[in-house]
Amino acid sequence: MSGFDYAHGDTSKGERKTPTAQFNRIALPEKIAKIREEAFAREIPTADDETLNFICTLLAAVQPENILELGTATGVSGAVMLDICKSAHLTTIERDPAFYDEALKNFKCLGLDMRVKAIHADALDAVNTLCGEYDFIFLDCAKVQYIKLLPALKKLLKRGGILLADDVLLYGWLTGEVPVPQKRKMLYTHVKEYIDKVTDDGELFTTIINVGDGLAMSVKK
Length: 221
Prior knowledge:
Layout: H1 30-41, H2 49-62, E1 66-70, H3 76-84, E2 89-94, H4 97-109, E3 116-120, H5 123-127, E4 134-139, H6 146-156, E5 157-166, H7 185-200, E6 204-209, E7 215-220
Parallel strand pairs: 1-2, 1-4, 2-3, 4-5
Antiparallel strand pairs: 5-7, 6-7
Helix pairs in contact: 2-3
């Protein structure tokens, strides 16, 4: 989606580069790399190298079998996760019909469609229809929904499972590196509320990671 809004992550504003970003590059299978390059060219929200490299490293270690993703876009991050976790199944939720259709085509082209359950719905509606437990949840949809989604995601997350929320440092706004634009105060407040909630939650171990535009990694006790 061109001109992607702050609620998802605004590619037009550029990425917040951490000091270690230069070292955290990602090597992807050729077909996935091509889909990702096309997404970048169209300014479609796609995880940067540093973030994707972190996800790959983490998943290579924990090897989840049941993954939930909120925010499919064109399927790049989902495809990467399934490539790393060869026996995993992915449930992925996307509200934008064009992204949803494109992701389905990409999963099929990559030979991953049999391991994917794609849901076209708003994340808040979809999570309440899910059952079972997930080893790994990647939260990368509208940022204002993070705090609203948290109770349902905690129920879906198995003990020892990981909830990884992307873009939580909001271009340096949350750390105070960059002043919060006046028109983005509400977004800042919602994301700050999410960070406060997961770091204070007695059922979660949480760390905020200065990778990409910020990750909140929570493990259910």
